[in-house]
Amino acid sequence: MYSWESRDRGNTTGRDSRGRNDSENAQRDTSAMNQKHLQSAADQSESLVALVQGTAHGDRNSFAELYRRTAHRVHGLTLHLLVDRKVSEDTTLEVFQTVWERAATFDPASDSPMTWLMSITHRAAAHRLRTGNRPVEHSEPACLDQLTGLQREALSLTFSECLTCGQAAKRLHVPQPVIRASVRSGLQQLKNTLPKGES
User: Fold this and answer.
1) DSSP state, 174?
2) Which of 23, 111, 157, 191 shows a CA-CA span of 20 to 30 A to 7?
3) Please, are residues 161 and 102 in contact by the beta-carbon 8 Å criterion?
4) Contact between residue 99 and residue 55 where contact means Cβ atoms under 8 Å apart
């Protein structure tokens, strides 16, 4: 016999079923959106890799497109670190000068393009802060003669060639912590050799 109770149970079961379906559909939609986002990020990274590699071969169009797509990120970081807008703009230009000159050192197996670019940016900003906002100079000062061989190599690879400590460690066949320690001690030694007022 049909009763109000049986009808209520049927309605409840139907609502529960629809609720589970809605939840499952929502989970599928979220998963699909996450997959789409990850795929989009991967595609963007791959296209940036191609632009950096094109820049390494002297392709000015690749360099111009790389600048168009990443300059706002570079400027944002320099402005955050340096505060002064004019100095941050100058440093941003220096970063892309370095990118043009050092693009061949980029290794997509070790870093993503943005990680590599942000590493260059951070070093350029750090140089500005250490040297009273003087621009980066690519010549080697005489005070480098006072460093050990490993300190010179570590600083040259990480600053001049814009390699990460991990990349420098592989190049020199030494543990990564040794490279980090050499960079820190080398920078401190260089700072100690500067006349007062220049550090």
Assistant:
1) S
2) 23
3) yes
4) yes
| Cα 32 from Cα 52, distance rounded (Å) | 30
The set of residues, in sequence order, having a beta carbon less than 8 Å from that of 71 and lying 6+ positions away, is: 92, 96
The residue to which tokens 């050192």 are assigned: 105
DSSP 8-state symbol, 43: H
Query: Residue 99 has which token pair?
Result: 């990118």
pLDDT of residue 162: 65
Q: What share of the chain is helix, strand, coil (3-state, %, to 5)?
A: 80, 0, 20
Per the rule left: phi > 0, alpha: psi between -120 and 50, beta: everything else, 147 is: beta
**Whole-angstrom distance, CA of residue 80 vs CA of residue 43:** 28
With beta carbons less than 8 A apart as the criterion, state whether 73 and 114 touch.
yes
Start-end of H helices in 57-112? 60-82, 85-102
DSSP label at 109?
Answer: T
Per-residue H/E/C for 117-145: HHHHHHHHHHHHHHCCCCCCCCCCCHHHH
Single pTM value for the model: 0.51
Cβ-based burial of 88 (10 A; exposed 0-12, middle 13-18, buried ≥19) = buried
